[in-house]
Design brief:
heterodimer; A: mainly alpha; two-stranded antiparallel ribbon; two-stranded antiparallel sheet; 4 strands; 71% helix; disordered C terminus; B: alpha/beta; Rossmann fold; 7-stranded mixed beta sheet; 6-stranded parallel beta sheet; 15 strands; 40% helix
């Protein structure tokens, strides 16, 4: 007997609406059990979380601050995932965006006129992110190296390299030896729109629109979709697969790099600890929950950010340990992800009547081939 | 899931929670209020004063039994001292970085009167928030930025560290001592140097092997770092971290250790010979007292063993009397002006950094970025 996930042929409209709503309530219920068992009133807690995330202009702006990097990296991940290219490297691409942005802001500022400095910072970060994503892309497209591993492992390289820089050669000489670069010159600061929410928000909206246009209105977007859905068909159609993988990944990495550059130029205005908070990993959840669709990524990112910001309130107003906040965040995500899985797939139990007349080895092989 | 579904979901979420939020909460127990009839003029005249509200921002949980544990012990001492006059709260596990600004701003907006932040990385963010809330008092532990409403406080933990180094130097058998260190910042380097100077003052043959973890609080990593040192043959583990994990790792190998932050012997056992420990309560009571009676002024406090803010914990039963005598003698020397960082002191290359008869200035100590002779390890420069 085997249990398999089977892709549903068609998904009913009701399921599309009902499943997320129901999973959301299931999530709240699960969370309520956790809260009750830690001695907190779930309703008060949820209200506190909601207020913490959306209760005032200020808290809403803080939610946006967290949503911006999630939007951009989420979009980046979605581009790659649409082609079934498992780019787990958004974090590393994000970090490189920060490194390159910092390099331009601190070390090229004397060669670049002030009005051009900020665009150069953003562009530098974007290009660096693209290049970092290009490495696993080229390896995959031309040599067939598994991209999950390469993109994941390059994250550590990027994170440790950034650490090396702000602990070592780039450390602020005025910083009393604390790890972190010097503050950027003011010309390299990304303008803030509302409190700390910066212009990166506009970048994210533009990026989402551009991606929507690419995937729905251009030939290239169509080609990418086909590659993702059926590689063999794509080959028959004469689509250049390798080249397209690389191009799409450059785009994917560019978005994460843009996120990293915006984060340093808009928020911390220096490269320091606490810069990479795992946005690139959360982005994977964001992209999946948005079904890899560009515009929904924006909304899911806000929701996700709200969960992160609101989660602080579990401590701040409810006085619960921070671990309850983290578990709650996990509990809420779990049914949501499960829900989206079951919208697209269904579980099927296969009973095999005549038990193996073939050896186990062969069976594994035949399963692998199928 | 379509876009529409998401809008629907988001709206539903907001409506659902708002609706549920509007319903009265029967579970919440009302504090017992005296019958209204008794609320006469007497009470109006004797206006119940609002408690002075104090918030602490912690980098780890009080359960770390180290750094944050000690700050929280100080907070509890505050509560005991001032009772109903104050109300305290804390938040744990706050990342150093932009997120911490949101937390501190949140407290200020909630009407807290005084905010303590107890890790170096909160400094810039506290300065940013302090500028926005001139009526709130901010105190930052271990940094250097101040404002009219923002003070710094710290202690010369290097003094008890030096003394604990004497214990280690006299009790090591392999002449190799391990040191698990957090961040490459002057605070940590200073402590490591002081410890090594203590070791070498009684045992010039001994060396101190160093491992960086790049984190203040990570129990698993702290333990692994200690194990890697033990594998290299050290027989005593000292540390600059937030938890007792390095001490536990040493004990499991049957080795000794020197604690930091709190009296770690209490939590781990006799294998912890002594600890260089913090005692924040005295300072917290002093500064909150000033805030309460309106005499608080911005300051940069760097207290010594004299001020009770830093001290050496009680010795474990394994420490022989001769060692204790030696430590007491050194303590006397420090308290009478012959501080730890007085020459001659050489750096790792044998080059003289502080000449005989000279002492480092506070600002040189606060900027320390080189390692003394006897440390096996390096800082990235």
């Amino acid at each position: 007997m085997r249990v398999v996930f089977e892709k549903r042929q068609s998904i009913s409209r009701q399921a599309m609406v009902l499943v997320p709503v129901l999973s959301f309530f299931a999530a709240l219920l699960l969370g309520a059990i956790l809260l009750l068992s830690s001695g907190a009133n779930p309703i008060t807690t949820y209200v506190a979380m909601l207020r913490g995330a959306f209760g005032s202009t200020y808290s809403f702006s803080e939610t946006l601050v967290k949503a911006i990097p999630l939007m951009l990296t989420g979009l980046g991940v979605a581009v790659a995932f649409k082609m079934r290219f498992w780019n787990i490297g958004a974090e590393g691409q994000f970090v490189w965006g920060g490194i390159a942005g910092t390099f331009v802001a601190l070390f090229l500022s004397q060669y670049i006129p002030d009005p051009l400095l900020l665009p150069a910072v953003i562009l530098g970060g974007t290009i660096a992110g693209a290049i970092w994503a290009g490495i696993p892309a080229v390896l995959k497209a031309y040599i067939g190296v598994d991209e999950t591993l390469t993109s994941l492992m390059l994250n550590y390289v990027a994170i440790l390299y950034a650490q090396y820089l702000f602990y070592g050669p780039w450390r602020d000489p005025e910083g009393y030896g604390f790890p972190g670069t010097a503050l950027f010159p003011e010309a390299a600061w990304l303008p803030r729109l509302l409190n700390r929410a910066h212009l990166g928000l506009v970048f994210a909206f533009i990026a989402a629109l551009v991606l929507w246009f690419i995937f729905n209105r251009t030939r290239w977007g169509f080609e990418l979709k086909i590659i993702g859905e059926n590689k063999t068909a794509a080959e028959y159609l004469g689509i250049k697969i390798a080249r397209n993988i690389v191009l799409a990944l450059l785009l994917s990495g560019a978005l994460s790099g843009l996120a990293g550059a915006s984060e340093v130029a808009g928020l911390s205005r220096r490269l320091q600890t606490g810069f990479s908070m795992g946005y690139g990993y959360t982005a994977i959840i964001v992209a999946w929950m948005a079904q890899l669709k560009s515009i929904p990524v924006l909304f899911v990112a806000v929701l996700m950010a709200a969960l992160l910001v609101g989660g602080d309130q579990v401590q701040l107003t409810m006085g619960l340990p921070s671990s309850v906040g983290l578990v709650l965040q996990g509990l809420i995500l779990f049914p949501m992800l499960a829900g989206s899985l079951f919208t697209e797939y269904r579980l099927r139990i296969i009973r095999q009547k005549n038990e193996p007349s073939i050896s186990p080895d062969q069976e594994i092989e035949s399963e692998l081939q199928s | 899931m379509k876009f529409k579904a998401w809008i629907g979901l988001t709206l539903l979420l907001i409506v659902a929670i708002l609706v549920s939020g509007c319903t009265p909460e029967p579970e919440v127990e009302e504090p017992e209020i005296a019958p209204e009839t008794e609320a006469t003029e007497e009470e109006v005249a004797e206006e119940p004063t609002e408690p002075f509200r104090i918030a602490f921002v912690y980098i780890g949980p009080p359960g770390d039994l180290g750094w944050t544990f000690e700050h929280d012990r100080g907070r509890l001492m505050l509560e005991e001292e001032f009772g109903d006059l104050i109300e305290t709260t804390y938040i744990e596990n706050v990342e150093e970085g932009p997120d911490s600004a949101r937390i501190m701003r949140d407290y200020a907006q909630q009407g807290y009167d005084m905010i303590f932040a107890t890790s170096f990385g909160y400094m810039d963010h506290m300065a940013e928030v302090a500028a926005e809330f001139p009526d709130v008092i901010f105190e930052h532990c271990s940094g250097y930025k101040t404002a009219d409403n923002m003070a710094t406080y710290f202690g010369r933990i290097y003094q008890p560290r030096y003394l604990s180094g004497i214990v280690a130097g006299l009790m090591t058998e392999t002449n190799s001592i391990g040191y698990v260190a957090a961040m490459e910042i002057p605070e940590v380097i200073r402590g490591l140097n002081a410890f090594t100077l203590g070791v070498r003052s009684v045992n010039p043959e001994a060396e101190v092997r160093l491992v960086w973890t790049n984190t203040w609080y990570d129990p698993v990593l702290e333990r692994e770092a200690a194990v890697s040192l033990l594998d290299q043959g050290v027989d005593i583990i000292a540390q600059h971290q937030d938890t007792t994990e390095p001490q536990k790792a040493a004990q499991e190998r049957g080795m000794l250790s020197i604690g930091y932050d709190s009296d770690m012997g209490q939590f781990v056992g006799d294998s912890v010979l002594t600890s260089a420990m913090w005692n924040w309560g005295t300072y917290y009571i002093d500064t909150v007292g000033k805030a309460l009676d309106g005499t608080w002024e911005s300051h940069q406090f760097w207290g010594s063993m004299d001020d009770d803010i830093v001290m050496l914990a009680d010795f474990s039963g394994l420490v022989p009397q001769e060692v204790i005598d030696e430590v007491e003698a050194a303590k006397e020397r420090i308290l009478t002006g012959d501080d730890v960082f007085c020459g001659p002191i050489n750096n790792q290359n044998g080059q003289e950094m502080v000449a005989e008869g000279e002492c480092m200035s506070d600002s040189d100590m606060l900027n320390m970025s080189w390692l003394v002779e006897g440390v096996i390890g390096s800082v990235s420069q």
